[in-house]
Structures are given as C-alpha cells and as structure tokens.
Design a protein that fits this description.
By secondary structure, the chain is mostly beta strands. The strands form two sheets. It has a five-stranded antiparallel β-sheet, with helices on one face. Strand 4 and strand 5 form a beta hairpin. It starts with a helix and ends in a 10-residue tail after the last strand.
Length: about 130
C-alpha cells in the first residue's frame, strides 16, 4: 500500500497543486472541493493535503474528521510524506476510533520534528458511501 500511495502522490503532484480529494482511479478530473467543505473518503478516493510547516518545526498534528453522525468500521490509512515522497509517518486506524466533528491526534514519536513542505494523505481501501469518514 505504501509504494502505491507514494506513486500516486508523485503522479498527482506532478499534475496539480493539490489540496483536495483526488479520485484514485482517474487523475484527469478532480471533484470541486471548496475550503471547509466535506467530501467522503471512499475506496476510490485519496485525500491529499500539502502542508508547509516552515519556518517552525511540527511535532504534533491533529485532524478534524467527520463520521456523518454514525459509527464506521472502515479502515483509515494516514500517511505523512516529505517533499521527496519519503514516508515520515504511517498509521492505520479503525473508523470506530473516530468521532463526528472531533480531532484525532496522530501518534507521532515523541522526538518527531519536521520543518518544510510535506504531504498528508488519508485513504480508506474498504470504505463505501454508507461506511466512510
């Protein structure tokens, strides 16, 4: 899964400045997503967010999730890549660990520190519209 996401990230970033949902199966089109809007992460979509942490070091990241006011059992994969597409962090969690409109703090190592451009990806290989975040 990691190599697939790294290849996906490389391909997608070469085509656009991404801060939106990207259909994993078709990179030519991109759903219209406005800041603050909510779009479901399903098995055919990967969410990519470009983060520029300069000039400060980042040692904590929390993500606001929406569960659509339900308990979801889908698997959620969260990765953080550096600007050379090297994996900085990876975590897989159950949708049951997420709550509607609440932050989930990544379990970064205590000595984790990063400065510069990085990419946060969120995917869910088994999510459907009825079971997604």
């Amino acid at each position: 899964m990691f190599n697939k996401l790294r290849s996906l990230l490389r391909m997608v970033l070469s085509r656009a400045n991404l801060e939106h949902f990207i259909p994993a199966s078709a990179f030519v089109t991109r759903p219209a997503v406005t800041p603050g809007s909510c779009v479901a992460v399903t098995s055919d979509r990967v969410w990519v967010q470009r983060l520029n942490t300069a000039p400060s070091d980042v040692n904590r990241i929390s993500i606001l999730f929406a569960t659509y006011q339900r308990s979801n059992t889908c698997q959620v994969d969260i990765q953080l890549f550096d600007d050379a597409y090297g994996l900085l962090y990876a975590e897989t969690i159950s949708g049951l660990q997420l709550f509607d409109n609440q932050y989930y703090e990544l379990k970064l190592d205590k000595d984790f520190s990063y400065r510069g451009v990085c990419y946060l990806t969120i995917s869910s290989p088994d999510a459907t519209l009825e079971n997604c975040i």
